Predict the structure.
Amino acid sequence: MATIDKKGNFKGKIGNTVHKKWKDKNVVQSAPGKGNVKQTEATKKAASVFGQVSSFGNLIRDSFKEIIMGYYDTLMIARLTGQLNLNLRKCYNPENKTWTFEEHSLKSLEGFEFNIDSPLKRNLSANPTYILANNKLSMSFPQINVANDLIFPKNSSSAEITVMYKEYDFDLLAYRFHPVQVYSFEVGKLQTTVAAADYTFETTEGCLCIVSIGVKYHAEYRTSKVLRNNKDLNPAGICCAIFNKGEFILTEKPSWSKLYGKIRK
C-alpha cells in the first residue's frame, strides 16, 4: 500500500513499484522480490515505463517551478502522473521499446491545474489560441476585460501574469529553457482592459512543447509590493501541450537541463 502525505509525496508500494522521497525528489523503483517471487518480463517493462512517466512528470514540475512556487494542491503530483501515464502509454511500443508521438498526443494536458484549489480558469478567463508551423509556436492572447476576466483576492492591488514556454525531449528526460521565451505583464486592479497580444516561441523538432500561465498577486505595503500568493492561492496551469514532429538533434547543450543538472559533454 502507498500513501500520499500533505505535500503530495508518494510513500510505499504500488504493485511492483516502490515510491519514496530521495533528496527532495520523488523516486519510483522496482520493488525487491521476496523469496522465490520474481518479476515477469511484462511487469518489469510496466514498472520501467511507469518510472519514466513519473520522472517526466517530475521534469515538468521542475521546469515550471517559477510559477508553481511550491504552492500546489496535495494531489497535484498524483494527478499529473496519472494524466501522463494515461496518455504516454498509448505512445509506447513495448516490442521495440520506442516512443512515437503525434502532434496532439498529449493534448489532454491542456487545462491541467497545478493548484486545483485556486484554478487558473476560475481566476483568469482568457482562452489563448495556438498555431504550430515551421518550428514556431504562435500564441494569441485575447484582450482582458479586467472587471470580468480577472479575479483579484481581497487586499491585492495588482496581478502579474506570466506566460512561460518550455520544450522537452522525452528520451533524454531533459527540458530546454529559453529566458527570452518568458513573457510577463502587470495588471492593476483598477485597470479597465489589457490589450490583446501575440507571442511567438521558437521550437525544436522532435520535442514536446508546453506553455503554462501563472498569476501572481501583489499588495502595496508602504513603498514595496508584497506577494499575496500562498498554498491556497496560486492560479497556474498548462494551456498548450503540442508535439513538434521531426528528428530531435541535441545542440547547444548548456541550455538543456535534466532533473539532476545540466547536460554536459
